Here is the input.
Amino acid sequence: MFKFTRASKVFFSCSLIVVYYFMICDLVLYGFAGYHVFDPIFYFIDMLRSPDQKIWQWAGDKLNSEVGLVLLIFTIGVPLCFLCFEYFFKKIPAHITNCRLLRPSYSLAFLLSFVVIMPTVWLKCFNNKPCLDRFLRTLPLLPDWREVLEHMAFDEMVVIPSAHADIDRAIPRPDASTTWRDDGSTLRDGAFARLFNPLKDSLAMKVFTETVKPSPVDVRAKIEAKDLPNIALIIFESLRPDAVSPEGMKEIHMWAEGGLRLENHFSGSNCSHLGLFSLFYGRNASGYDQTLENKIPPQMLHSLRRSGYEITFLTSGEVKGFRRVDKFLNTEYCDNVVAHNEYLNGMNDWPDSDRRKLRQFVSIMNARKDRPQFVFFYLVSSHYGYAFPPEFQIHDETPSLLHFFDLQSQVQNHKNRYANSLLFLQSELLKSLNCLDPNKTVVVLTADHGESMGEDGVFTHGSRMSDVQMRVPCIMVGSGIAPQEIKVPTTHADVFPTLFHAIAGKHVPIDGCQGRDLLEARDRPNEIAVAPSIGPGWEGFMIIRDNERILCRTKTKGMRKPVIEFDGIMDEFGQYELKMGLGGTIRYGQ
Here is the structure.
């Protein structure tokens, strides 16, 4: 009889080590950033295709040491675990059969049942559908495989949560009816439309229509006036909504009290390229790809240039090659692109890069020119990794890498580094602001997206549809802007129409702009639409209305007829309160 040879044992041992290593890496990645190993594969492909663009730096240099520690412990721990497993599996099969060839099968079957099947059955038996859904989302599977497993796990009928007790206690599958619109797109309609029907929601239809067929730039939107003020648009990387506060950048907070403050402001998304798109185009970022493919200019830059502004973009190469941002922030739409470096050189260069941009910004603003100036730039030191010079090491970190395994210590270390980077940026920014003439300048301060410190279960950004990843400060201070506080939800799409009103002294209509002029609106609707991203392949947008977050999923790419469907209701942490199952069923409610 064939024996389980030494070579087979080695091969089987190595295979198990690879499987365990993959699962641990996936678990660490999902727990840290909310991504599975499969999800960032497109980012890695970009890195391999364009290694000179140094896209890797946005992961943060400090993450390398943490990953190295996990690898070291795994290298020592997994072989020990494997020896224990081997001893265990030698004992059990010996009582079942003498065929040693079955031992690997027993091992793999046990591993599969222990990791996937048993938790699924246990959670289903105890009817814990929210935990079951979240457990399935954490499995290191391809999205299609995960969808099949979800389809097997969930019932056809659902229980509606107490918050929606006015709806029928059970909602069956919708019928096969389909509503066709004149433009050729299709909307799935059925019984679940009693909860939310995109077809009958004006904001959902407005966003969806603009996503499928973006409006051209409004060439008539301009200001015909003399002595227009200079404008500075200062964009922080990863600025949390509580960063500008008495507990955070308190001096910036005091400066902001002299202008317009948007207290419940959302970026256009939870990631850089979509947030910047919403800011410069005044549109929902769900139409990002369609707008760029149609080569539509950013409305903000187009209108300011037609109004006589000289536009300058100060950069250190942070947007070059990154998610097509350089397709709309470039020399075609800007008069000057001042690049100090072609690419950034890692975290250590971030503080010096920010200092150079601030010095250049002051020089441009104070130079005597015959045209008003519009200058915008990124401050990158607050990006994950959180860079700052040694003299700003005010909040200390845990001096050991062991904090990686202590959640509270890890959260505090992130907060300390982040606070240090903000204190550095505040110090440098105040020096620049004090050099400007407030009667001749309008300063807009905001961010591309927020940043999570574990509030939604992960760190950094771009992984959860949570408030902490999407909300950012937004402040306008300067000539013609009276102190005012707006507390209704606002978004980046509102910034340009409001800024245009501030410098023109009156409302300026802008066709195709989805944002609102917040200085004109008397009765501001308590609703906005944002387009958060949760990885490759996701299409859709979220409507935030009266503290309820309604998620709509769209399918427009590669579709003969674009589709919009209601996907569920989420909470402020990016978790589903109600979720649509396959075939249109509502999946669960808390």
User: Anything to note?
Assistant: The first strand starts at residue 178 and ends at 180. Residues 59-64, 154-194, 583-590 have pLDDT under 50 and may be disordered. The first helix runs from residue 6 to 33.
